[in-house]
């Protein structure tokens, strides 16, 4: 069993930056592929970025070059550094962990990009 707790969301102006954190509890963190997803009002949840146990990363085209996902296995934490934020990045951001059939979600953190 893995529990995920996100933090770092908030209100930011267009062009600004935020860093999201996701702290995991439970065993096996180092083996999990970790990811960030987001869901805007009235839209489906979508992939933002993932990072494997080996450190390979994958990004949605809409955030590539602006967002960076990273992980600290010693702290059991995954991060999402978000730069050059746009109003269309406004959403609830969810942390996700995945290992074979085991999938866990955090409760989400709100990110609002507005002037």
Fold and architecture overview:
The chain is an all-beta fold. The protein is 0% helix and 54% strand. The chain contains no helices and 11 strands. The protein has strands at residues 3-7, 10-12, 18-25, 33-39, 46-51, 57-59, 67-72, 77-82, 91-99, 102-105, 109-113. Strand 5 (46-51) and strand 6 (57-59) form a beta hairpin. It is globular and about 40 Å long. The mean pLDDT is 96.
C-alpha-based Rg, rounded = 13 Å
Task: Classify the helix fraction into a percent range.
Answer: under 10%
Mean pLDDT: 96
Order of helices and strands: EEEEEEEEEEE
Poorly predicted parts: none
Number of DSSP-assigned strands? 11
Please tally the helical runs, counting DSSP H or I stretches of 4 or more residues. 0
Coarse shape: globular
| SSE-based structural type | mainly beta
Strand content: over 45%
Terminal CA distance reads 40 Å
Mind summarizing the main beta sheet? 7 strands, mixed
């Amino acid at each position: 069993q893995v529990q995920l707790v996100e933090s770092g969301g908030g209100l930011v102006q267009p062009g600004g930056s935020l860093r999201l954190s996701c702290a995991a509890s439970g065993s096996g963190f180092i083996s999990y592929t970790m990811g960030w997803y987001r869901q805007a009002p009235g839209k489906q949840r979508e992939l933002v970025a993932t990072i494997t146990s080996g450190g390979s990363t994958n990004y949605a085209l809409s955030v590539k070059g602006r967002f960076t996902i990273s992980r600290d296995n010693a702290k059991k934490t995954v991060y999402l550094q978000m730069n050059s934020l746009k109003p269309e990045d406004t959403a609830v951001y969810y942390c996700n962990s995945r290992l074979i059939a085991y999938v866990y979600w955090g409760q989400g953190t709100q990110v609002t990009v507005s002037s």
